[in-house]
Amino acid sequence: MSDAMESKTQRLGTLEDEECLVSGTRYSVVSSQLRTKFGIKSLAGYMKQSHNPLVLQLFSFLFLAGLLLIILILVSKVPNSEVQDKIYREVMQLKTEVHDGLCQPCPRDWTFFSGSCYFFSKSQRNWHNSITACQKLGAQLVIIETDEEQTFLQQTSKAKGPTWMGLSDLHNEATWHWVDGSPLLPSFTQYWNNGEPNNVGDEDCAEFSGDGWNDLKCDALRFWICKKVSTSSCTTK
Known about the structure:
It contains 7 helices and 8 strands. By secondary structure, the protein is an alpha+beta fold. It folds into 2 domains: about 5-75, no CATH class; about 110-230, Mannose-Binding Protein A, Chain A, CATH 3.10.100.10.
């Protein structure tokens, strides 16, 4: 065979082998020499030299598929319990916010304690005007019914300053009654400060003062506390 014919045959074989590698339709006829040259390790180098659009598309597809697989593996490692716990916390927080916004045991600026609502004034009035102010709020100048309530009100008033309660002996000296007409129980007399009530200068109205009660002239200016029963069906936390 002439040199020209042999050279032509080699070029044709090379092109034929390359076509077999790209299309994959004639892979069975690819020589062992071609397998060595275009093995797995040299695929990247071949891709750099190739200008065939089909090869580039195939490589891009494999790259994207591998990237997607990595992302799926990472996501799958997040425990379902963590996701569920996060959703549960967010739902409970939303529930609390809705409950607090729509279901309050007392009106705004009132304080809830043991089934009742209390309004602690920011201004001072005399005893009679304090009664009127509470009535306008649909309440009464505070009447103390339990020792626990007394402790709560005494501590709050001590921090604020001398404060009127709904107790007086205006109708009968030394006989103390609440504003609803009920008498002062003997067990509550322990809350008078030492030496009180002393009725110095015609003192007929009672106030929270320091650690206990004191009688004072009813026209003195003091803070005041209103009380009314909570009508809400909400359950406090």
